[in-house]
């Protein structure tokens, strides 16, 4: 028998062939998660309205395990306007100490970057944070900011 799972084609549902070990799906999911899912970057809310001549705060929520490999990272803030132009805003270099007894535990930390006051509606666009570790780069989904007059 075969079944389509998540649109990725047919997977056999019959027992494994003799000589091959049976793999617990939970174990496999854990391995896949650890291979690339130890860190994440979130940005909320997805949409904001900002008045002209006011600064905005760009949120960046970073989730990572307390491991030496992940406690040193950089956050880059930038925005992409309505015609696709990317503008760098700022960069932060961070080195987070591992609290006693917390090694290998996961933490989520919130960071933000305040922009200069928005001068015109041309500052409408999507504002991003991008986090870089030594061998991984994760970018938030961005916050769309609609700059409007009073």
TrEMBL record:
GO molecular function: transmembrane signaling receptor activity
One Pfam family from the record: Ig_NFAM1
GO cellular component, one term: membrane raft
Domain of life according to the entry: Eukaryota
GO BP terms in the entry: B cell receptor signaling pathway; positive regulation of B cell receptor signaling pathway; positive regulation of cytokine production; regulation of B cell differentiation
Signal peptide location: none
Sequence ranges assigned to domain NFAM1 Ig-like in this UniProt record: 41-146
Protein name per its UniProtKB record: NFAM1 Ig-like domain-containing protein
Species whose genome carries this gene: Nothoprocta perdicaria
């Amino acid at each position: 028998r075969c079944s389509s799972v998540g649109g990725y084609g047919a997977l056999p549902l019959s027992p494994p062939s003799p000589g091959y070990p049976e793999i617990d799906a939970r174990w496999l999911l854990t391995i896949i998660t650890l291979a690339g899912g130890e860190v994440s970057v979130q940005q909320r809310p997805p949409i904001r309205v900002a008045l002209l001549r006011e600064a905005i705060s760009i949120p960046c929520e970073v989730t990572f395990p307390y491991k030496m490999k992940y406690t040193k990272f950089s956050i880059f803030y930038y925005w992409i306007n309505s015609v696709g132009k990317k503008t760098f805003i700022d960069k932060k270099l961070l080195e987070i100490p591992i609290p006693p007894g917390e090694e290998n535990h996961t933490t989520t930390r919130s960071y933000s970057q305040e922009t200069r006051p928005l001068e015109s509606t041309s500052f409408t666009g999507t504002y991003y944070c991008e986090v870089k570790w030594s061998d991984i780069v994760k970018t938030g989904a961005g916050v769309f900011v609609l700059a409007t007059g009073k």
